Structure formats: C-alpha cells, structure tokens
Give the backbone structure.
Amino acid sequence: MTEYNFETEGVKKTITYLNRKAPYGTIYALEVLESVLISAAFEQHANIVFVDDGVFQIKKDQDTADLDMKCFLPTYGIIEMEKEDADEDEDMDMNWRIIVEKESMEARGLTTDDFKIEVEVLSSAELADVLDTSDAVIGG
Amino acid sequence: MTEYNFETEGVKKTITYLNRKAPYGTIYALEVLESVLISAAFEQHANIVFVDDGVFQIKKDQDTADLDMKCFLPTYGIIEMEKEDADEDEDMDMNWRIIVEKESMEARGLTTDDFKIEVEVLSSAELADVLDTSDAVIGG
Amino acid sequence: MKFGILINEGPFTHQASDTAYKFVVAALEKGHEVPRVFFYYDGVYNANKLSAPQADDRNVVKRWSDLAADKGVDLVVCIAAGLRRGIVEDNLMDGFRISGLGQLTEAAIGTDRLMMFGD
Amino acid sequence: MKFGILINEGPFTHQASDTAYKFVVAALEKGHEVPRVFFYYDGVYNANKLSAPQADDRNVVKRWSDLAADKGVDLVVCIAAGLRRGIVEDNLMDGFRISGLGQLTEAAIGTDRLMMFGD
Amino acid sequence: MLHTVNKSPFERNSLESCLRLAKKGSAILLLEDGVYAAINGTSVSDKVSGATKDNSVYVLGPDMKARGLGESQLIDGIKIVDYAGFVDLAADNDGVTPWL
Amino acid sequence: MLHTVNKSPFERNSLESCLRLAKKGSAILLLEDGVYAAINGTSVSDKVSGATKDNSVYVLGPDMKARGLGESQLIDGIKIVDYAGFVDLAADNDGVTPWL
C-alpha cells in the first residue's frame, strides 16, 4: 500500500460533473452529488452539468417515501447555496456553474419551471465549449 | 434460513432465455449461458433467443486473448450439441430452439453466415408468438 | 399463486432489489406464496453481511434477511456468481444460503410466475 | 505525464475494471505516472479479497493488488461507497486502502488527466 | 403476457424492443426509470400513445411520485398501479417478460 | 479533447450525446461495446461515417478482436489503436470526456 501525496496547493482547475442518468433507478445521481459537495472544500472551479436523463435529477416534487429511499433534492439545494456563496464572496476564486442542456430538457418535455434549482440553460454548441475547456470530467 | 423443496417431477415447461446484451462489455452473456447449460439436466423445453445486441454474442471469430477474458463461443457449441441430442433422442421430450430475430440481425449488418452456430431466424411477429407462449422468461 | 423471484443487481446501485422487495411484500400481503428468491449476477451482493448503509437510508441486506426470518422465504445465492464476486460463507448474511444454478431452474419450473428484476 | 484513474464498476460484471487495468499497464510501460486509482460506486467491489474467480479466468482483484505492490500505485476505495456495499477493512485486499472522496478531488486536481471507467 | 420495462426510453432501447416484440393485446408495465415513457409532451410520447391502442399500458405510481411526476402529466389511456396492482398484473396475465 | 464512448450505439444514447456535444475537431475513441459503432453496413454506420468528417475517430483494436470484428469491416476514416495508442490519445489531447 502506497499512499501518494498530491501537491494541490495553489492549483486551480475546472472540474465538470457530467450527470446523464435519471435519479433512483440507479444511484449515480446521489453518489456524484456526494463528490461535488466534497470538492467545494478544495475551492476549484466546477461545472455541474445535467444532460440526457440527468435533467430529471433536478425535477421538482420528488417524493420517495413509498420507495423507502433517500430523496436527493434537498442536497441540490446545498449545491445551489455553495454556488451562491462562491459568487458573493469576492475573496474566493471559485466559479461554479449549474448547467442544463436545452436539447435534453426539451426532448423530455421540461422547462426551467420544472426544476427545483436555478440553472443556466445552454445549447448543445455552448455546452460543447464548456466541456472542451474542462480540465477533468467526472461522469455520474 | 428456509430451504424450500419444489415439486418439479413430471412438470414440463417452456423457458425462454432472452439475450439482449453484447458480449464482454458486460458479463450477462456468459452467466446466462451457465444457467442455460444447467437447465438441460431438468429436461425442459427451452428457447434460446438472441435479440438486440444479443445477436453479437454468437458472432464468429471472437478472440479475447488481448483482454485476458474467457471466450464464450465454445460454450455456444455445447448448447448447439445439447439441442441436437434432444432433437435426435426420441425418448426425450425436450424441445430446444435457438432463435435470432431478423430485425435485430439486419440492423447490425449481420447475416446467418456471421454466426458460429446454426440458428432459426424469425421475424419480430413470429418471435412475439414464441415469447407469448413461454412459461418463464429469463433475461440476460 | 406461487411467485419465483430472480434478482440480478446488487443493492443501492440499481433499484432492482428495492422493486423486488416491494413486490414480494405486496404478494405475501395478498396471500400469494413466494417460496424462493434467487440472487444471480451482481444480485449476490444483496447477501453481503458487511453492508452498513447510512442511518437515514434503507438497509437492503437486513430487510431481505428479516423477510426470510419472518416469512420463511428461501433466499438462494448462486455459488458460481458469488465465488467470482467474493460472496461466500464468510460474509453471508443470516437467512441466505449458497447453492447452485439448478435452484433457479427449479424456481422457474416449480412456480406459477418467474419475476426477474435487474439491469 | 500523471494519470489519475476513476473506476465506477465492480469486477466481471462490467468491462470497466479490465479496460482501466490495461490502460494503466500501458501508461506505466510508456513511462507515465499513475499515482492513484480511485474506486467509487460499485468500483469498490474490486477490492473484495474474498473474490475467487474460476481457474481459467483472470483474477481482477489480485491483479490490482499486484500492481500496487510492484509499481507503487495508490489504490483508494471510497469509504462512503464501500460502507453501504460492505467493502470494509475486514474484507479489503492487500494493497488497497480506504479513504474519503476528497482523495478523488485531489486526483482530479493533482494529475494531468483524469480517466474514468464505468457504466 | 405481462411485459415489464424498467429503463428510460431516452437512454436505452428496452421500450422499443418491448413494443416490437409484445403481441397485440399484451399488458405493459412501466416501472423504475421506465416511468418516464408514460408522460406527455416528450419526444417519445407519440409512440407510447400509439401503443395504448394495441396494448394495456400501466405505470407504477410509487416510481412516478419518486421522480416528481404527477397523474396530470400521464398520456391518455395509461393506468397507474401500486405494488399490489403490479402483483395483480403478474398474477392475472399468464406470464411475465422482462425488458431490462 | 478526447471523448470516450464505451456503449453500443444500438442499446444506448451515449454515442449520440457524444456526437452532439463534442466540439468539431475533437478525437473520439470507441471502446468496449462502443466498437460496434465502427463497423460498416449497420443502421448507425451513416451517422458515424458523417462524424469522421468533423472529428478524428478511433476504435480500440483488442475490443474489436474480442467481438469478432475485423479491420475490413471498418468504416472508412476510422483508425485502430491498441492500449498504448489509447494512452497516447489521452496524453496528446488536453482532456478526456467519458460518455459511459
């Protein structure tokens, strides 16, 4: 067992979290959220992107009581708050974006009114630029 | 722990194995094969059906040496032999069919020449009848 | 009526085990029999007694185990699938037993309906 | 160049762990560094020391363990993902260690490329 | 025959294969991520609506609720069942084909 | 940017999403079950062939061989790489986006 020590002090990267799976059918939505939350402590730039069925993750009115499963929606609220904190704190060099792809949203009959949190809606072409300039992409 | 004992003596059913996944990307093709082989001992009727990407399971010329993975193709040969044994043995009331759906095969640019084993090619409508008259369907 | 159950995915990652559990409970409540649940593929992970979910989450492994104790459902883990994935007697939860694939064929033959849950 | 590796699926059921292993071996052969492999989601099952595949199959768990011993690759199992799935110190293969999700963020920040393998 | 579909119609081909291979008059139950096929105004709604002409289509209520989908968004002709209703469907039809 | 696709284009939407969201001029590597997208004469061949105009498309040789696919079946313009070539692609492009 070799424990590696990374030099991360002073390094600033852009990490994109690419959420493409529907919630509850699989755990990816929940576990990727856990990793987004942890990353806040590292003060990196982050794009939290919802594409394909990932857009269903932030649908309003989720109620998992009948499934005995934990509902993720409140956790997205925490992410929204982290983003607001970063936006307002001028001493913090941390830019978070919460992005929904327009094409994915529309194919699923959704509008921004259907979402629990505030999002930036980008076209495929605009999102392609965001992905292209990411340093690391973590899929869910 | 409760061990249940089924009365299976004299019961004759038709079990359909519905293979819809490509080989090697996931293990389903291999493990469903293991269950088909075991079932031969129970002398039941069986339909071994290849639909969607399942048709790739019996593609000729598979060579997994570079992946260090076990190649399934020889096992399909065993199933073909089990079927022939059942067909030839007049005392054995066991009818096995190995079926490929025509639509799935054609969409993937395949013909029966591409397959390692002899198959019956059925149209979607004909296969729908086979599924409809199965007593149990086990997917892979 | 007798239902046989086949579960092909592990706990938490896929909903399969959750849906199967809800189905079994509803079937038993209606007076049906569920003589056997067979765990195959990654489904064998449902029998891992070391699983310790967070306090506010459901305990999938314990829930199956309790069902075996309370309702006498026969929980069978496939030996071949379990060996390669490391689900063996050492870490097997109470109420589960390890056996061969023939137990799945038996369940397919000996029940009125075989229900499959997986990915 | 430094590569960080993220593996999201368990052994055998998905090819992800196989592809990742082949990638890591090829990268090391070319003189690149692979300081850390992080096991997340069902990827934690790659660390189950009870896994005993058939003699004619590859031993995925042992292969990772040997790579840690031979090449000093840091194999980290996510503690939260491991707890819910029952991969804990009791059944952890040699060469793996259990730690928090921050170790994944570190690998994303501290390497030149993060490679993800999964379903 | 009861056909069960647990995959999103936007992500996988399970629903499509089910519709192609389910005999006319079959029952189809949409569950887990399959419930997204039951809602109006999506890129697959027309196809699913067409299927309600030939088959009895059901959707699992608890899975809709978990995903924030309401009865008002349902395609006409699709009926909601709970787990007890799922059991009834499995019992009343003479077999079950899973499209996973 | 290197985009990796490991899913069959007949089963899932991964390739489609990759093609929609990869910037022109990107590299795309088809691996695992994704290699089925690289072959001629299928229902998706035209789409993939079109993608070779805007992007550099590669396929992982060991995964083709395992699945019984030969070089002669490849769509024009797609190049075969081995694991060492995969490493080079990851190193030579300035990032990796996985479409799993």
The longest strand of chain C covers residues 33-39. Strands of chain C lie at 2-7, 33-39, 74-78, 96-99, 113-117.
